[in-house]
Amino acid sequence: MKRNALLGLLTLLAASLFGADPSLKDDVQSAAKELGDKPSYSWKITMEFGSGGPARLGATEGKTQKSGLTTLTMPYGETVMEAVMKEGKGVLKSADGWQTFEEAMAGEASQSNPARFLARMLQNYKLPAGQADDLLGKAKTLRKVEGAYVGELTETGAKELLTFRGRPGATNAPTAANAKGTVRFWLREGVLIKYQVQVLGTVSFNGTDRDVDRTTTVEIKDVGVTRVTVPEAAKKKMPK
Question: Which of 56, 100, 115, 234 could serve as 104's disulfide partner, Cβ 3.0–4.6 Å?
Answer without folding.
Answer: 115
